[in-house]
Amino acid sequence: MNNKLKILVNTVMILIGISFLFPLYWMLNISFKSKSEVYDNPFGLPKQWVFNNYRDALEKFSFLRYLSNSIIYSVGTIVLTVFLGSMLAYCISRMNWKFKGLALSYISMGLIIPVQVVIIPLLIMTRNFGLRGSRMSLILPYSAFALSSCVLMLYAFFRSLPKELEEAACIDGCNVYQSYFRIVLPVIKPAISTQCVLIFMNTYNEFFLAFILGAEDKIRPLTVGLLNFFVSIGVSHWGQIGAAMIITSLPTILVYAIGNEQIENALTARVALK
């Protein structure tokens, strides 16, 4: 690649990166503006920095309650999905049984079924099982919809591992559970970390299921709480709306900033395993 082409590619990539960061800049920008300045100066820096928007947003928006619900849903979904998904992926990729191919095809179908198609049966099931109004009414569906991608990703990692790992563990006296938890699982730690980051971000930002199945306000996550805040405040004060959006976005920004390296490690580990 010559220097001119390299400069052109780098310039295009920088412009694309700036376009991705612009919504975050705009949201942060309006969070420090007064009511009138949001309309008079929508994209420029604030002429007068209004820090009270954050205080007022926190007073009107039950941030801690909604945040605790979102964290519970995200962590609960991660634990349940990774625990069950990793064992299922290990079973499909490392063990010989009759319906292994059928099971893999069935799991793959979970990627193509949108949640909107099954929302009515899902609503009836949560009511019939007595989960309506409880946090499990969201954790279980979240885990079910995240299971397919988790199994398929870990399946690819498990399939790349040499069979000698289990053979050596068997010679040392390990049974299948000891071999899995002590030998195989630590090897795919980058893939597990990647799944934790992706599941957290998807669950934390999910709105549709939370809006339909979160029947009571006390169990609703941040996304639905943010909608309630928008409805209550209207469009009269975009500064407070921007402040609330920044506050609710901080956990995902932090998790992605920390987990970005884990995702890169998983990709490089996948290449190394090949």
The span between the termini is 27 Å
Radius of gyration: 23 Å
How confident overall, as mean pLDDT? 84
| Low confidence ranges | none
Q: Could you say which structural class the secondary elements and strand pairing correspond to?
A: mainly alpha
CATH architecture level-2 label: Orthogonal Bundle
Provide the CATH topology. MetI-like fold
Helical amount among residues, as a percent range?
A: over 70%
Along the chain, the helix and strand elements come as HHHHHHHHHHHHH
Number of helices: 13
Question: How big a fraction of the residues is strand?
Answer: under 5%
The total domain count is 1
Features of the shown structure:
single chain, 274 residues, mainly alpha, MetI-like fold, 13 helices
Word description of this protein:
This protein is mostly helical and 274 residues long. It has one domain (53-273): MetI-like fold. Helix content is 77%, strand content 0%. The protein has 13 helices and no strands. It has helices spanning 3-30, 35-40, 52-60, 63-94, 100-109, 119-128, 136-160, 164-171, 176-187, 189-204, 208-213, 222-233, 238-273. α1 (3-30) packs antiparallel against α13 (238-273), α4 packs antiparallel against α12 (222-233) and α8 packs across α9. The longest helix is centred in the last third of the chain and has 36 residues, at 238-273. The two termini are 27 Å apart.
